[in-house]
Amino acid sequence: MAHNTGLVCHERYFWHDAGSGAGFSEVNPYAQPDRHPESPDSKRRFLALLEVSGLADELTRIAPRLATPTELQYFHTPAYIDRVAAISAAGGGVIGDSATIGPGSFDIARLSAGGCIAAVDAVVTGQVRNAYALVRPPGHHAESDQGRGYCVFGNAVIAIRHAQRALGVGRVAVVDWDVHHGNGTETAFLEDPSVLTISIHQDRHYPTDRGQLSETGQSAGAHTNLNIPLPAGSGHGAYLAAFDQAVLPALLRFQPELIVITSGLDASAMDPLGRMMCTSATYREMTQRLMAVADACCEGRIVATHEGGYSNAYVPFCGLAVLEALSGRRSAATDPYLEELMSMAGHDVLPHQQSVIDAAAALVSEIPAGR
Ligand code: ZN
Fold it and tell me: If pLDDT is split at 50, 70 and 90, which confidence band does 1 have?
């Protein structure tokens, strides 16, 4: 019998080579070349922990496939797709703002988008109740005509359009808990009332000019975009308060037929790029809360697409917590960092954090009510 939770992964995801880097900067004459932050390591170790913990044995493996040119064009311009293909074939290079690919990355990025499509197929057709697509390269920063922020193709955008156009799904909600703003996903659906996009992120991180509370959607998509730009330093309490007071009420009001999590694990207290304090317990409880809403709205349908997360030590434990929650099982592995991280200051909701949550919560009543 199939297990309730699907897992998409593929060895080739780890072969995408973003080149060298220097923190979040390009290498320059004074910024010494280092390993690129968006390396395979944290994702490979995430998969490794799923296997050694035994949880992988409780999941239904779902094979990815290549997204077709038509599917890529659900979001991207033909000129951009052709440019990525040409640069990939020529051995790699720059495809946009903070986005570099290596040889063969075009097909790996197609497999990344196609892995998210396969996860949607499995959930919407009822093969599994929910699924996690542990894909690479990530997608939530990619714009229609350029790569951005380590992202090549908008994996979640393409998978959502597939759900709507090939599988007849109507209303979809995206919850982006990556520490960075989900600008690409927001752009894709900004004028679309059928997709509610919610991004909870570190205020003015990346992109620094996106993700403000004032952006609530445009034209026909008015009030179907919700940004929650939490101040740097927000932790377990602020994230769960934001969920309880803004994210969950927004979802319950919108009544999606499918929930997509763009799952960056870079809001953790150990992430080298983020400045937030989340732990594996935060990710576990956020997942459980979304599952309760999905049970109420859409027969538990959740698809998570992997995005950022740069702590080689901690991404695996945050990811394991998400998958334990999705599958309703606890593995033998315990988070060796959790007790110390939860003992640190920074987990109580502070007034300047609560004011952002209050402002986001006040926008919920504007969201068009579904069904
Ligand atoms: Zn990120």
Answer: very low
Tell me the domain boundaries of the chain: 8-24+33-366
Residue with tokens 């007034």: 351
Query: What pLDDT shows up at residue 24?
Result: 85
Centroid of ligand 1 to alpha carbon of 23 (angstroms):
13
246: its two tokens: 């803004």
How many angstroms is it from 32 CA to the middle of ligand 1? 23
CA of 262 to the centre of ligand 1 (A): 10
Rg of the chain on CA atoms, in Å:
19
- Do 42 and 310 touch, CB atoms closer than 8 A? yes
307 CA to middle of ligand 1, Å?
6
- How far apart are the CA of 266 and the centre of ligand 1, in A? 6
Q: Is the pLDDT of residue 35 over 50?
A: yes
Whether pTM exceeds 0.90: yes
Name the residues annotated as catalytic.
141
CA distance 80 to 74: 13
The pLDDT tens digits for 338-359 are: 999 999 999 999 999 999 999 9
Topology given in CATH for the domain delimited by 8-24+33-366: Arginase; Chain A (3.40.800)
CA distance 308 to 266: 6
Neighbours of 222 (CB within 10 A): 15
Residue 338 burial (CB count, 10 A): 16
User: CA 321 to CA 331: how far, in whole Å?
Assistant: 9
- Token look-up 């290596």 returns 102
